[in-house]
Amino acid sequence: MKKKSTIRKKIFGFLEKPRVSIFRSNKHIYAQVIDDYKGNTLISASSKKLLKFYKKRREKKITKKELSYKIGNLLGKIIKSYGISKILFDRNGYIYHGRVKALAKGLRNVGLQF
After folding, report:
1. Total-model pTM
2. What CATH number does the domain containing 79 carry?
3. Does residue 26 sit within a domain?
């Protein structure tokens, strides 16, 4: 909790450069695009929502890391459609490794800068 509050002191997103916050549970990963100036969540994406529409999951096993990459890629495309090219990446105190890194790689692959 202390690590998270230290990070949040330094990061403040606004409409031109919003904050992408990540929450990671044992099964799923969630990402939100937040405008801290107004206190609004602009866009959200989660592996839970993606699995509902991804029917090939039953045929072929998808690792949580691959799923995180796809969430980052999907979220990045939605952010780019809003005309935003720069974001602030809030890893929420998690180590930049594994699923968090895969999500960030998916965001960068679309062309977002952070």
Report:
1. 0.86
2. 3.30.420.100
3. yes
The predicted-structure confidence for 84-104, as pLDDT tens digits, reads as follows 999 999 888 899 999 999 999
Q: Which residues contact 13 (CB under 8 A, 6 or more apart)?
A: 19, 34, 35, 36, 37, 87, 88, 90
Residue 114 falls inside a structural domain? no
How many other CB atoms sit within 10 Å of the CB of residue 22?
Answer: 21
**Beta strand extents in 5-104 (DSSP E only):** 19-24, 29-35, 40-46, 88-90
Kindly report, residue by residue over 3-56, the tens digit of the pLDDT.
667 766 667 777 788 999 999 999 999 999 998 888 889 999 999 888 776 665
Distance CA 55, CA 85 (A): 31
